[in-house]
Design brief:
Layout: H1 18-41, E1 66-71, H2 82-87, E2 92-96, E3 104-108, E4 116-120, E5 123-124, E6 143-150, E7 164-170, E8 177-185, E9 189-199, E10 203-214, E11 219-222, E12 234-237, E13 243-256, E14 260-274, E15 287-301, E16 310-326, E17 335-355, E18 358-375, E19 386-401, E20 406-421, E21 437-451, E22 456-467, H3 471-475, E23 490-504, E24 508-530, E25 533-555, E26 559-572, E27 590-603, E28 607-619, E29 621-622, E30 630-631, E31 634-645, E32 650-657, E33 664-667, E34 670-672, E35 676-684
Length: 694
């Protein structure tokens, strides 16, 4: 796999002082023991008797975590992508290297990109070789839902993450029909696709194929490599930024007797794209190709373990091949690489009630990963291939007392990994110990959920999570990056308290959600100069405090409003001159988003129409650890609308982004597009194109 060195900032959170930690932990544990004792002595009502009002789809894996859900009923927009959808959620910050299809990494509550785990249909997309998951590489067209768990890792996912979990689910067939779409817009953008669904009595199947292309020649302000001198700035068009992609997906569900099913997903992606250099450098033709094949199969049952129980057994494989050709050194030193990454694994999860007040959840997860890079450039040295065997096991108890309307949810998991360098004698390794390494990472979490009323839910969490060093961090790349074999895992202690208020009536539905959060992290991995080389070391400490709020309004299913604000105070606590006490780079202090919309309004009989506008605000962000390069605050406006004829199965969607043409930069030297307009025409079998209202 090819990696651009995109700093994820000074990687998340600082350890709190030991005496503060001990007092917080002792107080929290004492409170939990008291409440657990109350649960054990309370009458044993049926678990299902606790009623919680819901105003919108809720995350399915963990009701104690702060979470957000995006479904297929989202606002119809043209040319949307996954980084855009995620960036609108509370607690989420996305760093992009350009427009459609460009590298985009994710931060949750001030985490680094490495500290966020991304799953697709239960399959982990992170790689042992390192680097955060590129969410810009994930097609959004065939996603049925997106669940984001901020700061906490549900036990069902096996491995934990300091930042949190993003769970993507593909669309499943619920009826039979056909859908096709085509569109285009600014900067030579073109896209099209088709989807076929079939829903029989015992078998459901869906297949889709999509194509995307764009020239990407948007104008931007070129600072001519002198960011502090505006006199030599000029307007330039982005060079070597074209992209061509084709992707597809097949999803099959077989319904078995009782509440059982088997299902499987196969998805593929092929992409060729130009790799533009920094905006002040002339492009000379660097290119990147990516091919990825993902396959998974699972068995689900709600019957085998008794009433109220469920379990799943799943196997998967992900293979990614990347080709980088940069003979002129546009991105650094000249390179021509062919990298192959494979990941194969299995996961078993189960939930079983042991009493009316007690449920137990178990997870067992195993994975084998191999990273096999090579360089075909004459005279170049190759990155040594490596492999990792991961394993994780965990247990979670859910104790509910009807008297206190309270759930106490402790969990414990153990993660382990063994790294091996393949054929080290073949490579020129600079000071790297090539012996295998084994890691053990115990993690624990305690969660509380209280239903204060049918409208108010309170929650609290305290958890410890970690991140294993990557193979690249351990073994280096035989170039300027040396490995450090004795790195220890990054660790973070996460805490939050939150509340949700919901009011649901026949015409008006309201939901308010808020949370205060804190993260203390230690042993963060930073790259330090070692002569002419860079070497990773466990030297990072950080502290993150923050608050996030969101609101949803739905009136008569015709007017909707969503808004969120997130404040994050992320501080570098490592005792290094120039960065101590500074804000972690790429962690904006303020993120806000708002979108009012009119939906499914009648027009001339059976026609329907809708409009939306959105506002995206970001301020207080830096591109360097010393806080010398500040990103200008930005306010981005967007708008769009759609008109549809459900009786004919037609829909026309128009969307405009960054209407004020505000200059935007997420990463030094890599501008984002300005004003953009896109149009999509969609046709589907008429009975499946009706506006989804839930």
């Amino acid at each position: 796999m090819w990696f651009q060195r995109v700093p994820s900032g000074a990687e998340i959170a600082e350890p709190a002082r030991k005496h503060i930690h001990s007092r917080l932990n002792a107080a929290f544990a004492a409170a939990v023991l008291c409440m657990a004792a109350g649960a054990a002595h309370a009458a044993e009502p049926a678990f299902e008797t606790v009623v919680v009002a819901e105003a919108a789809p809720r995350a399915s894996r963990d009701d104690a975590a702060s979470s957000s859900v995006i479904t297929a009923a989202r606002t119809p927009r043209s040319a949307e992508d996954l980084p855009q959808l995620l960036a609108e959620l509370p607690g989420v910050s996305v760093t992009r290297m350009g427009g459609l299809g460009s590298l985009a990494t994710l931060s949750l509550r001030g985490s680094s990109a490495n500290q966020v785990e991304v799953y697709f249909d239960g399959v982990p997309l992170s790689a042992a070789s390192g680097g955060g998951v590129d969410v810009g590489l994930i097609p959004v067209v065939d996603l049925g839902s997106v669940e984001v768990y901020r700061g906490m890792s549900p036990i069902a996912f096996g491995a934990s993450a300091i930042g949190g979990i993003v769970s993507l689910s593909s669309t499943a067939a619920t009826d039979s029909g056909v859908r096709a779409y085509a569109g285009g817009g600014s900067f030579g953008t073109e896209f099209a696709g088709a989807q076929a669904r079939w829903a029989g009595k015992n078998l459901r199947a869906l297949a889709s194929v999509n194509a995307l292309g764009w020239t990407g020649d948007f104008p931007y302000r070129n600072d001519n490599a002198t960011p502090f001198n505006a006199s030599d700035d000029s307007i330039t068009r982005r060079q070597n930024n074209a992209l061509r992609q084709i992707d597809g997906l097949a999803h099959v569900v077989g319904l078995l007797p009782g509440s059982r099913q088997m299902w499987g997903t196969v998805s593929f992606l092929h992409r060729d794209q130009g790799e533009p250099p920094e905006g002040s450098v002339n492009a000379r033709g660097a290119s990147l190709g990516t091919d990825r094949l993902l396959a998974t199969a699972a068995y689900d049952s709600n019957d085998d373990l008794g009433p109220g129980s469920s379990w799943r057994a799943q196997i998967y494989n992900v293979t990614t091949w990347q080709r980088l050709d940069d003979l002129n050194g546009d991105l650094g030193a000249p390179a021509q690489t062919r990298d192959l990454s494979t990941s194969s694994g299995a996961t078993i999860t189960g939930v079983k009630p042991l009493a009316g007040w007690l449920k137990l959840s178990l997870v067992a997860d195993g994975r084998y990963e191999r990273f096999d890079p090579s360089s075909v450039l004459p005279g170049a040295t190759s990155i040594p291939p490596g492999s990792r065997v991961d394993g994780a096991g965990g247990v979670e108890a859910r104790m509910v007392t009807q008297t206190l309307r309270l759930a106490v949810i402790p969990s414990l998991r153990l993660e382990t990994a063994k790294d091996t360098l393949t054929s080290p004698a073949r490579y020129r390794l600079s000071g790297v110990d090539t012996q295998p390494a084994t890691y053990w990472l115990p993690n624990a979490r305690l969660a509380l959920v209280q239903w204060a009323s049918e409208q108010v839910t309170l929650r609290a969490n305290l958890g410890r999570y970690g991140r294993l060093p990557s193979l690249t961090e351990r073994y280096g790349n035989t170039g300027l990056l040396l490995g450090t074999p004795n790195l220890v895992p990054e660790s973070g202690t996460n805490a939050d308290v939150g509340a949700n208020w919901t009011r649901q009536g026949e015409r008006l539905r309201l939901s308010l959600d808020g949370a205060l959060f804190a993260v203390w992290a230690r042993n963060l991995i930073h790259f330090l100069m070692a002569g002419p080389y860079w070497r990773p070391e466990n030297v990072g400490l950080a502290r993150i405090l923050g608050a996030e709020t969101s609101a949803t309004v739905d009136w008569r299913r015709r007017f909707r409003f969503f808004g969120q604000t997130t404040f994050t105070d992320a501080r570098d606590q490592e005792d290094v001159s120039g960065s101590y006490g500074k804000q972690l780079s790429f962690r904006p202090r303020l993120r806000a988003y708002a979108r009012p919309e009119l939906r499914n309004l009648p027009l001339a009989g059976r026609w329907r129409w809708g409009l939306y506008a959105d506002l995206d605000v970001t301020s207080g962000n830096y591109l360097d650890s010393a806080n010398l390069v500040e990103v200008n605050p930005r306010v981005l406006f967007g708008a769009g609308g759609q008109i549809s004829a459900p009786h004919w199965g037609l829909r026309l969607v128009a969307s405009a982004y960054n209407l004020a043409n505000t200059p935007v930069v997420d990463f030094t030297g890599y501008p984002l597009p300005g004003r953009s307009v896109f149009l999509t025409m969609q046709w589907s079998t008429p009975d499946t194109n009706k506006e989804t209202l839930e």
